[in-house]
Amino acid sequence: MMYPPSQQAPLQPGYPAPVPGTNPALQQPYYGNYPQQSVPSQPYTNYAEAQGGPGATYSNGVTPSAAETGATKTASYYYPGGAGGSVVPPPGPYSSSGPRGSVSGPSTAAPFPGSSGAVPPRTPYYPTAGAGTGYPYPSGAAPSSAASGPGMGGLSGADGGFSGSPAQQLLQDVQQFNAPRHFTRAAVARVPHSSSLQQKLHLPVGLVVRPLAPVPAGFAEVPSVNFGSCGVVVRCKRCRTYINPFVHWEAHGRRWVCNLCGFVNDTPQFYMRGLDDQGKREDRFERPELSMGSVEFVAPADYMIRPPQPPAYLFLIDVSAAAVASGLVESACMGIRSALLSGRLPGCTQSGGQGEGQVIEDGRTMVGILTYDSAVHFYALNGGGSGGLAGGKHRPQVLVMPEIDDVFLPLSDDLFVNYVENKDAVLKTLETIPHLWRSNTCIDNCMGSALKAALLVMKHVGGKIMLFSSHPPTIGELVTKRSGGLAGADGAGGGSRQQQQQPDREVELLKPASEVYQQFAQQLTQSQVSVDLFIAPSSCAPSVVGSGYGAPPSFTPAGGYQGGQQGPAKGSSGAVGGGTGVGCPYYDLATVLPLAQLTGGEVRYYAGFHKLQQGEQLENEVFHIMTRTTGWEAVMRIRVSRGWRISSRHGRFYLRGTDLFVLPTVNADSTFSVLMEIDEQSVGGGGGAPGAGSLVNGSGPGGGGGGDNVVAVQAALLYTNSEGERRIRVHTFCLPVSQNIQDIVSSMDPEVVSCLLVQRAIEQSLRSKIADGRVFLQTSCSQLLSVLHSVGSSAGAAAHPVLPSLPHYGASAAGGGSASGGALVEAGRLVALLILGSLKSTAFRPLKDVTTDQRVFEWSRLLSLPVDMICAYLHPRMLALHTLPVPGEGAAVLDGNEEILLPPQLRLTSEEMTQDGAYVVENGEEMLLWIGRSVAPHWLSSVLGVQSLDSVHPDIAASSIGDTQAPLGLHVRAVTEALRRERAPDWMRLSIVRQGDPHEQKFFAQLMEDRVPSLLLTFAEFLQKVDVRAQLQAPALPLMPGSAAGPPPQSMQQQQRTY
């Protein structure tokens, strides 16, 4: 018996090496994180995969294809059919030595290739273990190895004193086989056994799933399982759950019990195998689907009703006067060309040669180009065999369609072509478009008609529309206007009654003005087309009389501007790109957003766009979106165990039926979150999960249908990768059920809890008003801290002083005791810190410098970002750049992996700053570099090439950092580039803020531990406000790696700055 190489997970610093003679999987740091479950992917409502049988057809005859598995390589496992169920195991360095498949092999492994294993990965928010801050929640570290023996997982003496082998085996399976943390993260690793206990805890029970997430360096790739000529993927016949490590086998392997619904299934003949003396399959560790929580099945023919879709991109570019003047047309074309020439386009492969002209390309990728102003412009892209454009012409063949009320295709061919076969024509067209329309003076916009034309071009294939827009449509189809009741009342001239009604009117502006874009988005999903929005309203946009755009509603609260005047102050905090908002017209992003929200697309918003300030950002984000791992024609289902149900879902998708996620495209950044609750009807109104009263029933995970002692979640994504292969990515995650409050709260992941609370607050704000969302956040934080204080002060907590760590959700999940009361309180304070950041952020702060479009954009991001990016937004990072060492003068600037060493992270308070310093603050969206008036002239000359601060131009100085080629300048540039790489997928724009500039407040608004105009509370004061049981002294702020432990200053004056 051989073991797959992926079974030997890399070890992280601080975790024990595998013990000789034991299964290395039981020592895995990664899979022992916390219980996770995978979601079975299902196609469409009438599709064979959704119905559970072949032969069904989709309503429009389109097959749901799948997405590329990722930029990661997968180990392939092929199981040929046969009566004996013969298996060809993958090669591996380990040999079996017992019924459990114990192995012998290396006892240590470095966490990253080329590293010594002594330094854990650098984390943005939390100190490394033992950093001296006393904070027990390092982020991003790998979980400890699975504990063994009595008390494993903290269950000994906690859940009724269960220490027998069945409970130990159950928890070992959960820790060993759960899906990895980069794919799934749970809010709590233990779930309450009843709805009354869940309400008492005030903790969200939910899961964040990122199905195609990149695999971190040093971790096993997702294995690919191919059942070959059998043509069958083993699944439950009742609930359609995919085979996974947590099913229970009986009758000598002839039957297996589904761990989600308890149905007893007959084992297919080709899949038969005997059981060992523990009731487990003998080939358990030879089959990835039985020994790993994340696998990828090669889908048989029953999972497709047409050939797999090729990668397809249609570029829809606004060439009206506003877009040309702001540089949007040029930036869009440059970004697209850069991605096409990079050789990293999905579906295109390159081999041979070293120069661009010598590369041999082969690919399936299809490309189309449309532009629009008051008419729709089609481009014939067939090279015609001449090596140039159609007919050998030097300019592209443009077909103009002025009939925008009833668009049709002027050509049957050449509008959507194979990129490799027509590469020269496509690139030449993109190069020509900015020059072709540089003198355009048309101010009208028929974006809606252009979108319908784009759908006609690609609906027979599907794919992605990349829409670049400077303002919404003014003529043609899909033109919408806000009702006069919202835009007509003058907020400035009204009395107190009008001011009381303003918040309600603001919420209405955060919702679509009509449902036309939602209806059109549903048409797009039926044709497997998604839309990526690049919204770039520009200060160059001319006023369009009678259009309803360019002048926002005359209403003054945080949602917009009054009377068409400039709303936010100069330099106000904005969306991605950090636009100043100067002269930025109102776009009504809320109305157009469903195009991306319901089709699985992307949204990028550039306030006050101009090429000089934000062109580089747009180009880099276009490059990333086009070259990342992408899947096509995808559908996904997330299933949970009987007795539980999914109460809410977040992300960018169209929900068909009750639980089918329709995703025309899905990518490596796509993230979905679900909240779960106990289904009272399915458990007979008893208020408890079925069988949750015991952790020992001898049935293993899933309980064999008798008494479920774990809650299983399975996420299954059916998609077509960019190589044209139909795949099913399955993630399975299990959560033990507990009656012990202490065990549940000590298994909390503060980051995921905070993210789910923020998403619920956004839902609450849209249902009523933003103020209710802010109240919900404060109330939830206060209730949670109260519970943590109660549990932390109990005798049981005091008797177990072992501190928890975030990756394995507390000491009770790591084994050997419960989390200390102090550690639980610190976890609650982390939640409070992130909640405070959300209240002071653009998403929730009640100030007039936040426009409606900005808030809509931020809410859309927070509902679909990965957890680490949400935490970066809620708690920015501040670094000092004036203290960077000069390379070559003895100080180390690179770590052992040849990565740039970042300076220590500072607390987000002005008391950390001095007048002779330079400090950068980043939140995942943008970077702000503040330079004090007394900064050293040598620093200015080395970094920016100027002799005085007055010579620094805020708009263009950021692009000149390091141009002097001085070692210090190059070091500063390397630090900013390293920050950008850490914050992918967004490309953070760097802006310069000089001390005393009018927009300096934009920088200090990020210092959320100080008082800011949006919330006049420091972090210590906020804790005392929400935590009634907190002590008077402020806690040691634990989130600053490299900073000395200790309490913050006792007094923090409003916007105090120690210059």
Relevant terms:
Immunoglobulin-like; 26 helices; eight-stranded mixed sheet; SH3 type barrels; 24% helix; alpha+beta
Topology:
Elements lengths: L47 H4 L24 E3 L86 H13 L6 E3 L4 E2 L2 H7 L4 E4 L14 E3 L21 E3 L4 E3 L6 E3 L21 H4 L2 E5 L13 E7 L2 H6 L1 H14 L6 E4 L8 E4 L2 E7 L3 E5 L16 E5 L15 E2 L4 H14 L10 H12 L4 E7 L14 H4 L8 H14 L6 H11 L2 E7 L53 H4 L1 H4 L5 E3 L5 H17 L2 E11 L3 E7 L3 E3 L3 E8 L4 E7 L31 E11 L5 E13 L2 H6 L3 H18 L2 H23 L2 H4 L12 H4 L6 H19 L12 H11 L4 H8 L2 E4 L24 E2 L11 E5 L3 E6 L5 H7 L23 H16 L6 E6 L6 H4 L14 H8 L33
Parallel strand pairs: 1-5, 3-26, 5-9, 10-13, 10-17, 17-18, 18-19, 30-31
Antiparallel strand pairs: 2-4, 4-24, 6-7, 7-8, 9-26, 11-12, 13-14, 13-16, 14-15, 20-23, 20-25, 21-24, 22-23, 25-26, 27-28, 27-29, 29-30
Helix pairs in contact: 6-7, 6-14, 16-17, 16-20, 16-22, 17-20, 20-26
